[in-house]
Design brief:
By secondary structure, the chain is mainly α. It is built from 21 helices and two strands. Strands 1-2 form a two-stranded antiparallel ribbon.
């Protein structure tokens, strides 16, 4: 077992090394420039599209309204990465890591936009009448038969990786945080999660979309509001916090207290890696949800999709990072969820750590729902609709197992497979970028001719 673990660890170092981080940022930058920075320039238009009636009650072809598709994608991305991942980035890379997280998100908006455009453009209707799509479909239908093997690779990596990042790791995080804060045994958490997730999965994507569109806005707004309260309490530290973020983004952070110090490369590496882990731009997971949207227009769904990266990283992750830095506890030696918990507790004594525990539990629960759908669609691509029910059963059984066992190896394997999911997706995004650019140009040319924008 140790030999296997060491082997996977070596592969992990390769796939999450400089070439992968450069590739994810590079593809995002290429798409941003190819789109003439449209995702940033049209951010307000994206939010308008998200709030309008068509997004909330789509009547076009598809399974769920565009807003629910975004919330399903967000349910999978707003998770432990926003609470534990940001803290880990700051602990290992210093405050400068937050700057590189922001940069990853800004170019990641173009990546997420392009993924959703291709997902809607090349989606199919399966034998149950459901709309299915994502990287495996846009590789097969967009690049042709000779590239089909690449789509199969993506589906294999995604269906297995889902059990790590989207299931066992999340269940374990919830079990840990509830035991520390509320003395609830791991096995109890595992069983309760199993029942709750099972009840939702019976209803398929429509039930997941309904639950996600109810829970995700509530949990994200609540977490941001609590974070803003802590930032208001620490308001006098905010200018210094931004000073630390921008100075340590380009110069080494010295050792201080429990903080070991960090080179600029560490700030870049952990900022980019944790940013991607948090918002999943480039991994190819979110377009699987967006392919189910009730829409005729790939560009409209792309503009809704790109908001996911903005909300996840620029808003939610920034709140976590700023609370940690303004509270002064980033030098305490704590890391992960414990560091975030300590930061909120410093601002709101007797209350902050419980709020983080509850937020983490809800974030992780919705992540399990979102990723179950990603895994399910991947397994359907490989084996057809007959594989869906067995996959759901194994998925539900894995939850209490994840809540009660040591996950060191599973975390490592999932993290590795996550990066390997990104490879086929990034290749497809580059090769299909002319399709994205053409569809985008046609859409905005039509808007201009009609006098709208």
């Amino acid at each position: 077992m140790e030999a296997i673990s060491n082997f996977v660890s070596e592969i992990n170092g390769l796939v999450w090394g400089p070439p992968m981080l450069v590739m994810i940022l590079g593809v995002g930058l290429f798409l941003s420039l190819g789109l003439k920075l449209m995702p940033i320039m049209k951010l307000r238009a994206g939010f308008r599209l998200m709030w309008n009636g068509r997004a909330r009650g789509g009547d076009d072809e598809g399974d769920i309204p565009p807003f629910q598709a975004l919330m399903t994608a967000l349910s999978a991305t707003v998770g432990t990465g926003n609470i534990a991942g940001v803290a880990t980035a700051v602990f290992l890379g210093g405050p400068g890591a937050l700057f590189w997280m922001w940069l990853t998100a800004l170019v990641g908006m173009a990546t997420k936009y392009s993924e959703a455009v291709l997902a809607v453009r090349f989606r199919e209707v399966d034998e149950r009448g459901s709309h299915v799509g994502g990287p495996m479909y846009y590789i097969r239908n967009g690049l042709g038969k000779k590239w089909a093997w690449l789509g199969v690779l993506f589906a294999v990596f995604a269906s297995v990786a889902a059990f790590g990042i989207g299931n066992t790791v999340q269940a374990n995080s919830v079990a840990d945080v509830l035991e520390v804060n509320f003395s609830i045994p791991h096995w109890v958490t595992g069983l309760v999660l199993m029942v709750l997730v099972g009840m939702v999965l019976i209803g398929g994507i429509k039930r997941i979309g309904q639950v996600a569109s109810a829970l995700v806005p509530f949990m994200a707004v609540s977490y941001v509001m609590i974070g803003l309260v802590v930032l208001a309490i620490n308001a006098h530290e905010i200018p210094a916090a931004f000073d630390l973020i921008f100075s340590y983004a380009f110069s080494p952070a010295a050792a201080e207290g429990g903080f070991a110090g960090a080179a600029v490369w560490a700030a870049i590496r952990f900022g980019v890696a944790r940013g991607i882990f948090s918002n999943e731009a480039g991994l190819g997971s979110a377009p699987i949800a967006h392919a189910a949207a009730q829409t005729k227009d790939p560009v409209r769904q792309g503009m809704v999709a790109m908001l996911g990266t903005f909300i996840d990283t620029i808003i939610v992750c920034s709140i976590t990072g700023l609370v940690i830095i303004t509270s002064g506890v980033w030098t305490s030696g704590e890391t992960g969820a414990a560091l975030t918990s300590l930061a909120f507790e410093t601002g709101l004594p007797g209350l902050g750590n419980y709020m983080v525990a509850i937020a983490l539990a809800i974030f992780a629960f919705t992540t399990i729902l979102g990723w179950s759908f990603y895994g399910e669609r991947s397994i359907e691509f490989l084996f057809g609709v007959k594989a869906i029910v067995p996959y759901r059963i194994v998925w539900i059984i894995a939850i209490p197992v994840g809540a009660t066992v040591n996950l060191g190896f599973i975390w490592l394997l999932a993290d590795t497979l996550n990066a390997m999911m990104a490879l086929p997706n990034l290749i497809a995004l580059l090769l299909l970028s002319p399709v994205v650019f053409r569809l985008t140009k046609d859409y905005f040319d039509k808007q201009m001719s009609q006098g709208t924008h």
